[in-house]
Structures are given as structure tokens and as C-alpha cells.
Amino acid sequence: xxxxxxxxxxxxxxxxxxxxxxxxxxxxxxxxxxxxxxxxxxxxxxxxxxxxxxxxxxxxxxxxxxxxxxxxxxxxxxxxxxxxxxxxxxxxxxxxxxxxxxxxxxxxxxxxxxxxxxxxxxxxxxxxxxxxxxxxxxxxxxxxxxxxxxxxxxxxxxxxxxxxxxxxxxxxxxxxxxxxxxxxxxxxxxxxxxxxxxxxxxxxxxxxxxxxxxxxxxxxxxxxxxxxxxxxxxxxxxxxxxxxxxxxxxxxxxxxxxxxxxxxxxxxxxxxxxxxxxxxxxxxxxxxxxxxxxxxxxxxxxxxx
Length: 305
Hints:
Structural class: alpha+beta
Radius of gyration: 33 Å
Mean pLDDT: 77
Largest sheet: 5 strands, antiparallel
Distance between the termini: 38 Å
Shape: elongated
Low-confidence stretches: 1-23, 26-31, 300-305
Number of domains: 2
Order of helices and strands: HEEHHHHEEHHEHEEEEHEH
């Protein structure tokens, strides 16, 4: 059986025992039920185990979160660690930690990883049918063009004639793209119309804003120069097709596998959330009555992220 790889699983396993250099509440040397009470530096307890103001402050600053958020995270870590500690009675810390990890993995296998069997194949088929375009990427074409700007409805024979000359230059050039880009260096201010030279990427038949341009671009079977001037809503174009990205289609079996993985991930997330809630419900927690004042840390306010 595969292990779950989720952020929450990392929290659960990290909570199975103290890691080297950790700053959170420690259970080393403690039997599950503690005797601490809120008061003084202790701002909260989980099943009798203390969480101090200093720990909250350190967690808040390390995570860049509000103190209340840091406190909830410390509580969750302690709750899960206590749940894993329940049956660990071996004195050796390394053996105890290994036992706790194995126990948590077994718990997750029983309550969460079994969720794969809960995924309905019929629902996956429905999801596949409901998203026909998700697993198909249409053909894309890249281009470079020289545009003589002419507003719609206006005749500009000089612009058409000039673009026709540019098309001939591009067809004769060993590198049409370089030739097109070099036009930027010419003295274009003497022409009676504006000239634009640019590269265009990612055009498909479906996302065209200028149909005449796209029709000309997709008329070529391979990369090269469109052999005539193209009139669009923007003006007259000399167009070079620079690259063709073929359409990509994800095989149906692969698409269903992707949808299944997504469904399993959603189901597991829900199961983990429910598992954590059940453990938390069974674990006594107490907060200091003046918690808002105790967690008013310099530079970290409730308006923080």
C-alpha cells in the first residue's frame, strides 16, 4: 500500500515525537496524561501538557502567522503526538519514536488510505465526459509579422504595396524571421502609415482575435512565409510562420488515472480532517482566560496573515 503524501501527513508524523532542534511542545519523558494547568507562562494545555507563551511566540515568528494561528498549530501537533503516544511504553526514545511512527502509519492506512476503494469508477467516467476539452491541447502556431497599420474601412494602396515588397524580401531571405525583425532598424518614419514588427506566440484557431490573420497562418502546411499580403482589421501583414506545436491529446486511460488521483487526494484530505477532528474531540484542551492579552506579541498582531 502506498503511503499518503500530504502536508497534513507530515504534521502527523512530525508530531509522533520530538525532532532534533524542534521548538514545539515535547512529550519526551512524559506519560500521556499531564498535570499542567493554565496560568503564568502556560497559555494552554492539551490533556494536561503545557503550551507556553514563549512557544507560541517562537512558532508565530517562525511561521509569520498570527499568534492564535500558531497556537492552533501547536495544539494540533500536541493532540496528534498524544494520540500516537497512547500505547508507547518502551523506555528507549528511538524505539518509542519508531513505534509511534508505525502506529500512526497503521492508523492512516486503516482510516485514510483505504479511501482508494471508495472512488466510484462511474463518477470518474462522468468527470471525464463533463470536461472534454481538459485533456486536449489544440494545435498552436507561432509567428512573426510586419504590419502596416491601416484602420478598417480605409483603403491604403501604399501600405498594401509596401507589404507586398516586404513579403518578397522575406521569401528571398535565408532567415525570414531575422529579416522581418531587421525592418525595425529602417527609417520607417518616412512612411505615411505606422509600422509594427512583432512576434506572436500561442495562437490557436479557437483563441483568434483576428480571424484573417489566423486563417492565413493556418493555411501553411509547414513553417515559412505566407506568400501574399494579408488584410486584417489591423491593416496589411507580411507573416512568417515560425513554429507549429502539434495538438496534444491525453489518452483516455491516462486521463481517468489523473481524475482518480485527484478524487483520491480530495477524499483523503477529508478523511484526514475528520480523523484529526475526532482525535481533538477526545483530547481535553484548556486555554488561559486572558489569552488575547497573553498573545499580544510585539510586531505580530491579529491583522497579520
